[in-house]
Amino acid sequence: MNALLEDGRLLPLVEDFYTIQGEGFHAGKPAYFIRLGGCDVGCSWCDSKNSWNPRLFPPVSVEEIILRAVSHPAKSIVITGGEPLSYPLGPLCKALKAHGMEIFIETSGSHPLSGTLDWICLSPKQNKPPLPEIYPLAHELKVIITGPLDLEWAEYNRRKVSPGCRLFLQPEWSRREAVLPHIVSYAKANPVWNISLQIHKYMHIP
Ligand code: SF4
After folding, report:
1. What separation in Å is there between the alpha carbon of 79 and the centre of ligand 1?
2. pLDDT per position in the chain (206 positions), as tens?
3. How far does residue 160's CA lie from ligand 1's centre (Å)?
4. Whose CA is nearest to atom 3 of ligand 1?
5. Residue to mutate, 43, 45, 56, 123, ligand 1, most ligand atoms under 8 Å from C-beta
6. Atom of ligand 1 nearest to the CA of 128
7. Domain containing residue 145: CATH number
8. Cβ-proximal residues to 145 (8 Å cutoff; 6+ apart), any chain
């Protein structure tokens, strides 16, 4: 890997855009999204498969990313992917913090944490489970449910996060009609869980 990528001063940027966070605890919040390329987790239902191969995305300097990110009125940044922790995020977070930004990350937790993060949304995947050290630091656990068996995976992960971690079950989008009745029943019977829907898809925004 390029040495600059290794120290996080350049990042393989897939896209960056200003939108509304559609998922989890902060659903409905205007935020600037920074999507980094590269993911080795391989979820069959991934809705960002175009981001998996980082070589498709020429490295962009942190300075260039920041220039665009701070030109929007929202002070909230969502770093996502791909798996954004594939890269050291220290330089990006430091520059965002210098502009007073609040930084949220969406991660599978399968790579080491880096950077200054205000909110960690951990979305664990069975293909490549989270590293143990991320569980107590997660502010939010968001488990994607493709069928009833995934509820066992959700409980397995719930036992590992801290007591204050917000808990969400989110239907995998292509199976939402079939899966939603199971999730609704489960959350009603186990009300520590909330339901997350991908409201940006209902609003037809990125
Ligand atoms: S971890 Fe996220 S980006 Fe990677 S394959 Fe799974 S859903 Fe897609």
Report:
1. 13
2. 577 687 999 999 999 999 999 999 999 999 999 999 999 999 999 999 999 999 999 999 999 999 999 999 999 999 999 999 999 999 999 999 999 999 999 999 999 999 999 999 999 999 999 999 999 999 999 999 999 999 999 999 999 999 999 999 999 999 999 999 999 999 999 999 999 999 999 999 99
3. 21
4. 82
5. 43
6. 1
7. 3.20.20.70
8. 151, 154, 169, 170, 171, 172, 179, 182, 183
Residue 147 domain boundaries: 3-202
The closest of 146, 159, 107, 149 to 130, measured between CA atoms, is 107
Q: Compute the distance between CA of residue 204 and CA of residue 206 in angstroms, rounded to an integer.
A: 7
Using the mean position of ligand 1's atoms as its centre, give its distance from the Cα of residue 157 in Å. Answer: 17
Residues with Cβ within 6 A of ligand 1?
39, 41-43, 46, 48, 81-83, 108, 125
Q: Identity (one letter) of the amino acid at 172?
A: E
In the chain, how many domains are there? 1
- Dist. CA 146 → ligand 1 center (Å): 14
